[in-house]
Amino acid sequence: MSASPSLLRIRGLCVDFPRGGRVLHEVSMDAAEGEIVGLVGESGAGKTLAALAILGLIPQPGRIAGGKVFIRDRELTKLGEQTLRPLRGRLAGFVFQDPLKSLNPVRRIGSALVESAMRHSGLSRRQARERAMEALRSVELANPESAMRAYPHQFSGGQRQRIMIALALINRPPLLIADEPTTALDASVQSRVLELLKRRAKRHTLLMITHDLALAARFCDRLYVMHGGRVVEHGPARELFSNPRHEYTRSLLDSLPGRRTTAPMRSKRRKSREALAAVRGLTVRYRGAAQAAVEDVDFAVHANETVCLVGESGSGKTTIARALAGVIRVDPEQLRFPSLNDDLPGAAVRARHLQMVFQDPYSSLNPRWPVERIVGEPIRTHRLCGRTEQKARVAALLGRVGLDPKQMDRRPAAFSGGQRQRIALARALAMNPRLLLADEALSALDIRTQARILALLRDIREERRLALLLITHDLALAAEVGDRVIVLRRGRIVEQGPASKVMNAPRHEYTRELLAAQARWRPENPGREGVRMYTPRL
Q: pTM of the prediction?
C-alpha cells in the first residue's frame, strides 16, 4: 500500500451473477493521490468488472454481493442509482476499451462533451462549450473547433482514444480509470497517448487496466495482479517484476515475447515456393479521398509462411487484408491466387480457403447469437459435417482457442474482449482455411492467451501448411513470429524483408522511428526505458 493517503479504497469486493455464481472474490486495493496503479491479468480475470463495480456499472443481472468502495472517504456501495448517477462524472472518469463502441455514432463530439459538462458540473451551455474546447486542447487534438462538429467515425483510432480521455476528464474528477487505453493503437500513437495519460496523472489518480506487462512495468507505480476474480499479488511495479512471489505472476512474465518457453512460431521446414496469394501493384482509392489508401503494393504470401504487416494507423494494412478477403473490390489483375487455380475466385471458393479475423470482435460477432451458432455457422453453410457432429466440432474448436465449451450457449456480451477475439478466431479456423488474415487478432489478448494461440497457429500451420498474414502494431510480436515483415506508411511499402534484418538492422528511417517508439521492459532492468525486447537471434 502507498504511504500517501488513499484516494480510492476497495475492501473485500464480491460480485455475483445468477448463472455464473461468484466472479469477484474479496478484491481489495488502494490508489493514492497522484499515483498510477496498474491492474493486470489475463482475459476474464475480472479486471474490467472490478473497475466497473467502483462506479456501480456492473452489467445486469450482476450485483455487488459484499465489500465496500470508497473515493475520498465517501462510500459508493451504499448509494442507489439515482444518487450515484450525477456523481459518476465528478468522482471518476472512465476511458473505455473500445472508443468507437462507447461514442454515439450519430452524435457530434462537441454535443457529447457539452452535455457531460452541463449535467455533471452544472455549467451553462456557454461555459460547457468553453470547457469542452479546453478538454480537447488538453489532449492535444488538432483543430478542436473542427473536432467539435465532427462525428466519431471521422477520426482515427488514436484520435478517438484522445476524445475518450477528454470526455473522462472534462468534469475534472480526482480518479481516472483507463481500460486497455492503447490496445489496438500503433507504437507511435500508443506512445503519445501514454505520455498524455502520464501528464494528466500528476493531477489525477490513474487506475489503468492492461494485459501488456511491459507497458505496465514502464508506466505504473504499483501493480495488482488478478487471476480467476482474485487479487493474487500486488506491490511496487519494479519489485513485483524483478521478484515475483506468486506462480501465476511468474507464468505471465514467462509468456512475454522473447521469454516464451513454447516452441518457436517459425517453421523449420524449407519455405514453399507455392504462392497462396500474390499482390501486384495493388491500388485502392476511396471515393472522395485526397490520396489513395493503398498505392502500388507488391508482395506474396506462401504456404507455411507468416508475413507481418506493420505500420501506423491509416497506413493501409487493413485495406490490403480486406482486398484479399474480397470485402473491397479491386482490379482483378492486382490479386492472384495461383494455388486455387483461379485468378480471382468467387465468394464461396474464397470463403472456403481464405478466412479473416477482424480487429474489432464487438462488431464482427452477432450479439444476438449464442457462441455455438456463431462458430458453427460456417460449418453449416458449407456442409462440412452432419448436424450430430457439429456441436462436438464447435466444442473442440472452442477448446483449442482456450475457451470452456460449456459456455457455448452464452452470447458475446457475456465474454471479455480477449475472449470474444478467441471466439472470432475459432469461427475462422472452423473452415480449415489455407490462408488466414488476422487483423490485430492478437492485440486484445493477454500474453498467456497470446502464447497459447501462437502455439495453436504454429501447430495448424505445420499440419496444414497454413499461411498467415498478420496485421499488428506490436513490433516485438512481429519480430518473434514473422518470417517476413512488411512496413507500410501512407499506403506504400517502405521496407520489407526477413524479420531478423528488418527488426535488427532497419534501413528506412520510418522503421527506425517505429522501433524507437515501442520501447519495452526487459527482465534485467524493469525500470529502464528505451530497451527493445526483440530476441537478438532470429
A: 0.71
